Amino acid sequence: MATLLDVGLLGHFSPIFTFLLIYVLAYAFLTKTALLGDNKGVYAIVALVLASLTLFFPPIVALITIMAPWFVFVMVVIFLILLLMMAFGVKGDVITNYFVKDKLVIWVIVGFSIAIFLFGLSQVFGDVIAGGSSAVDGEETEGSADFNEDVTRTIFHPKVMGVIFLLIVASLAVKLLSMTPPA
Predict the structure, then answer these.
(1) Contact, 61 vs 18, CB < 8 A?
(2) Which of 68, 117, 124, 183 is most exposed, with the fewest beta carbons within 10 Å of its own?
(3) pLDDT digits (tens, 9 = 90+) for 14-37
(4) How far apart are CA 145 and CA 44, in angstroms?
(5) DSSP code at position 143
(6) What is the DSSP string of 78-117?
């Protein structure tokens, strides 16, 4: 049954959307950095070639198809947080200074970007890299056929969760001990 929210047919257009995304991002990067001089025609040709080359490698198209919605989601969340802050009376200049000068905000955004990239890599290349077996508690066991299940089991293993907790506690201790006390 067809509904307004049925976007399954748009999946067939993902190479076109990927081509357009790569073209726009490459052209914007070349224009912003002026890497190849001031000729915008050269920028357009280089962006066209880069976008065309991505279509010849289907895993890159799949990687971009997986990552793009997550980046859009993160941008929408950031936009809504900024909108909420402005609704409570925080001025735009204060928000801009906070985002530019505070390194924590930049590192959180970089961290989310790396996490999205690694998630995309695991979705596209995970079964190829996994090889089908895993080692838990020092004993070699046959892995399941599903790479996602193996990753979830590994991440949420009590030993791994304990190490993550210890790393968080240690990083917070270093941060708090290295701060200068307020005068």
Answers:
(1) yes
(2) 183
(3) 788 889 999 999 999 999 988 877
(4) 44
(5) P
(6) HHHHHHHHHHTT--HHHHHHHHHH-HHHHHHHHHHHHHHH
Structural domain including 51 reads 12-56
Which is it for strands 139-142 and 133-136: parallel, antiparallel or unpaired? antiparallel
Q: 18 to each of 4, 48, 83, 176, how far by Cα in Å?
A: 23, 12, 29, 44
* Cα 171 to Cα 91, 96, 168, distances in angstroms: 32, 27, 5
Q: Which residues pair with 141 in a beta bridge?
A: 134
> Which residue is listed with tokens 């304990």?
162
CA angle 110, 113, 119 (to 5 degrees): 140
Instruction: Examine residue 169 and state whether it is found in any structural domain, yes or no.
Output: yes
Token output for 84? 């909420």
Q: Same structural domain for residues 64 and 123?
A: yes
What total of structural domains would you count in the chain? 3
Judge whether residue 139 has pLDDT over 60. Answer: no
User: How high is the pLDDT of residue 135?
Assistant: 41
What does the pLDDT read at residue 134?
42
Distance CA 95, CA 102 (A): 10
